[in-house]
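RETRY 2/3 - previous attempt timed out on the joint model. Re-submitting the same 482-residue input unchanged.
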Amino acid sequence: MTIMIVDDEERDRMWLKNLLVENFPSDQPIHEAHDGQQAVDMAMKIKPNLIFLDIKMPQLSGIKAAEAILQKLPETGVVMLSNFSDEVYVRQLWKIVPPNGVFGYVLKNASNEQVVEAARAVLSGDCWIHPGIARVIQRTQNRATSLTSAEYEALVCIALGMTDHAIAKRLYLTEKAVQSRLKSLYAKLGIPGRGESHESEFNQRCRACYVATRRGLINQSELDDWESKLEEKKQGGPAQV
Amino acid sequence: MTIMIVDDEERDRMWLKNLLVENFPSDQPIHEAHDGQQAVDMAMKIKPNLIFLDIKMPQLSGIKAAEAILQKLPETGVVMLSNFSDEVYVRQLWKIVPPNGVFGYVLKNASNEQVVEAARAVLSGDCWIHPGIARVIQRTQNRATSLTSAEYEALVCIALGMTDHAIAKRLYLTEKAVQSRLKSLYAKLGIPGRGESHESEFNQRCRACYVATRRGLINQSELDDWESKLEEKKQGGPAQV
DNA sequence: CGCATCTTCGGGGTTTACCCCAGCCAATTG
DNA sequence: CAATTGGCTGGGGTAAACCCCGAAGATGCG
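RETRY 2/3 succeeded.
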């Protein structure tokens, strides 16, 4: 059995490695990589059965690395490691795992037992999702609360601080369309408008950013990515999530 | 020499403990606690020379724990451990360390050598600040870019999604005063107004939240704290930072 | 096909956020 | 002392954000 560990933090790699050699005795060494690009290259060569991927990494994120690897080697068992229960990542992960592929998703504050459990599950063909993430997954599948990609685009834009006008220009829409997206976004995030809810007055725009961040719909590093994309002279058109 | 380690993550405690027993041989055992309250209680009993404190912990944050401990035992050498280079924390830390007290501030992605170095420095009466934080500190001391507490209050409020009116009510100010605070806040964050900067149109309010978060002036967990404070039926008056 | 959902877009409104200008008071500071 | 700075107040304005209404095209589904 071949195992790969991909994480940019040496400390986390060692922790995981120790955990694995104890619980999965094997004559094969455990291979390590410390960024996404390396991971993809190495995976192509050694074709691991099981691969642990950190999400937050330089060069190429764990999500993108997983995408590349699963495309060529759909049989690979993937276990994502993350510090956050961010919905952004779950959204993305859901899209790239092949319908019958298996994967695990464990938070880094998981107990050692949970990590081993996740690894065993994936190896035997099951999925293992961290308990704390279960409800996040549910929410992404609930029509009433999950965001459409149109709404998500708008969310990202206001979180970056763009005006309606700027968003319209950027996404090739009228301002009305933008406001329409925002309106349904606010509704789904449960943010009261002017009339409703007497006590609580909100600036919906900022409130939406706050709520969305708390729910893990967006996070700072994702936003920074978008920010730099926008600065690339508005190329590539509206992006997909 | 007595050493204490305070961290809610078992993994980080073990890493640090191993590091310390290797580099600081001592007949004394290394004491551990896993939240702020425990840390304070234990510190009172054993009066450690050196204490490592994680910032993000349940019950009582590392900052608050440090405050309590330094008040009773100002001689204690404190080394803060943090995942972030957030300016919020530096602001707070600066206020609670006694003028002649020593402390270290290391990020968790620091190398083993750096941690040992920080520990040695603090033990010998020096401060040790993580390189990545140096410029943050500088910024907090630069009059032109550092926020006053008035501006900071306003920042927190808009980040929570409050309207000018709601902020005014909350802080016992007129709306004009709030807008005045916001205006200078935007200026210090370098956010262009309507007239200036032709290409880039910004919703200053949201943009301020984004920029402030990126600079570590605010972060989600701090905001959540404020949010719950606000829900406590507006007690305690405007808070200080 | 009818039906539902998502999305865009129009007209025509109110409120909020931001703009410029000026003055006043308190606390520092040279 | 005068000078400066930070903070609050006021008047009076513009533009952006949000409100309700309805309509129409695209898509997918039973």
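The interface with chain B takes residues 9, 11, 15, 109, 158-163, 165-166, 191, 200-211, 213-214, 220, 223-224 of chain A (CB under 8 Å). Closing ticket.
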